[in-house]
Design brief:
- It is elongated, with a radius of gyration of 22 Å.
- The chain has a two-stranded antiparallel sheet.
- By secondary structure, the chain is mainly alpha-helical.
- It has one domain.
- About 60% of the residues lie in helices and about 5% in strands.
- Helix 2 crosses helix 3 (about 60-90) and helix 3 (about 60-90) crosses helix 5.
């Protein structure tokens, strides 16, 4: 009976070594994505402003009253835009937002597999936890640790 010995060197070469990127690249991703989010929100504001004009609203008192009446609606639109930006980009591009595309990084699961839609949605929801951005000062942000994901340099 012949006993085969495992080729440990071959197994080591095939093993994936995932190393999370540093805080500098994470911060660059964050800044780029926040700028893009604000640009998107300016577009939403422009559409809302055009809707005011199309309804014939043109005096300051009426505009101020409309803003006060629409505050909850505008927060909801902001929340949904934020959620859609991160979720749709990370799900459609397998872990990349525009910030990650620019910096050459990608979000992956801890086992090295690409993100699923569920992973992207959960990461986006975790980003909305109060003070979540400050969790990055302690190492991996909560949206990584809770969802068992990480951001790595994009493989060549």
């Amino acid at each position: 009976m012949e006993q085969s010995t495992p080729d440990l060197l071959k197994e080591y070469e095939n093993e994936i070594h995932l190393v999370p990127v540093g805080a500098g690249l994470r911060f660059a991703n964050y800044i780029i994505d926040v700028i893009i989010f604000y640009i998107m929100m300016m577009g939403v504001g422009a559409v809302w402003g055009l809707s005011l004009v199309s309804r014939g609203v043109n005096d300051a008192a009426t505009i101020e009253q409309d803003i006060n009446n629409s505050t909850v609606f505008l927060y909801l639109i902001s929340f949904l835009t934020f959620l859609a930006y991160y979720t749709l980009f990370e799900a459609a591009s397998k872990g990349k937002t525009l910030g990650k595309l620019i910096t050459g990084t990608v979000a992956v699961r801890d086992d090295g597999n690409a993100l699923t839609f569920k992973d992207a949605l959960l990461r986006s929801l975790c980003r909305m936890i109060p003070f979540e951005p400050f969790s990055a000062f302690g190492g991996r942000p909560w949206h990584d640790t809770i969802t068992h994901t990480m951001v790595i340099k994009k493989p060549q």
